[in-house]
Design goal:
The chain has about 375 residues and is α+β, with helices and mostly antiparallel strands. The chain has 14 helices and six strands. It has a four-stranded antiparallel beta sheet, with helices on one face. Strands 5-6 form a two-stranded antiparallel ribbon. A hairpin with a 2-residue loop joins strand 3 and strand 4. Helix 13 packs across helix 14. The longest helix is centred in the first third of the chain and has 20 residues. It is elongated, with a radius of gyration of 38 Å. The N terminus is likely disordered.
Length: about 375
Amino acid sequence: MLFSNLCTHVVLLPVNTARMNNFSVSIRKSKSLPIIIIYYNGKRHRYWNGKAIGIKLKCIDNPSLLKSAFELKLREGWKPKLKKKECKDKPITVIQALNNGLETKVTQRCSERYIKDIKRIILLWKRYESKQYIKNITIDKLKPSHVTKFLVRPNWSAKTQRTVKSTLSPLISDYRPNLFSKVKLKKPNSTLHKPFDNINDILDDIKLFNSKLHLCCLLTYGCLLRPHREIRELTWNDFSDDLKYIHLAGNRNKSGRNRIVPVPSYIRDVLVKRELYHNIFSNQPQPLNKDYFKTLWSRFKRQSNLLEQGQTLYSFRHSGAIEIFKRTGSITKLQKAMGHSSINVSLTYLRGLEIAELKEEDMPIV
């Protein structure tokens, strides 16, 4: 009945194609079977049956009738629906993941040195991909073996490999959380910074060599600060008005915690306070370059007759730690002075300095 009513309203055209202002309807063949082809506003639509316009009719049963039904619906204002293509998210490349991680760290206002390290790692990874013929490798295809091969290099020590791994891991972990747990690296050998037995003689020798290096060594020994960043970046504003304390914000030291460090009198005696926001070494708003004290120490080491094998700039900090522990017997005080995150870290530190084996339960109770 439906088809007969439809036919009374539809005038069948003598040709297989009907053209209107903005659409055309035709009968074509696909796999030897008839099919309705509609071009609407330049877009092609294919129909095997009348389901789209609410008619239970297959094109193979009566293509002419189905074609006429579509023409009628089009004149009445019906419009073919565009099929939405399911777009699968393409997995991002490792380089994209690294750059995304870099942007996040910049947003989090991480230190300039950390950001610089990330940029260097991204550059090295690009070279690695090119050399290994895995350019634009996607994050889903990244294997632990790829990471291991990137990290294990002849010119990188075991410590450097682990440092680069710890920098690389957070950038990838959002996409591959467990990947780096499968990357196994050789454990680095512990490097002991041999303490000084003749601390006064060494300091006097350094004072004759260079006054800035002498002040750096005094602060490393007397305040137990780290020389290459914490001390090098000190400004007069970090000191209290009477120069008795140094205040370091969490973003200025390795522990990430705010620190207040006493300044011994023998250090205050050599301090001459100047412009509040100037660096104590450069006398300018900008600090000295990051390798300044490393270079000075290398020069002093070459001409010194007092230094022993294994004694470094950090030996002043280690010597200061031993002195505090010997005088106080308190691992808790040592922990606070060193800025360590836990007592266990300080215990490990002392064992590395050839102090007798200690356990936490052996320590004085405060």
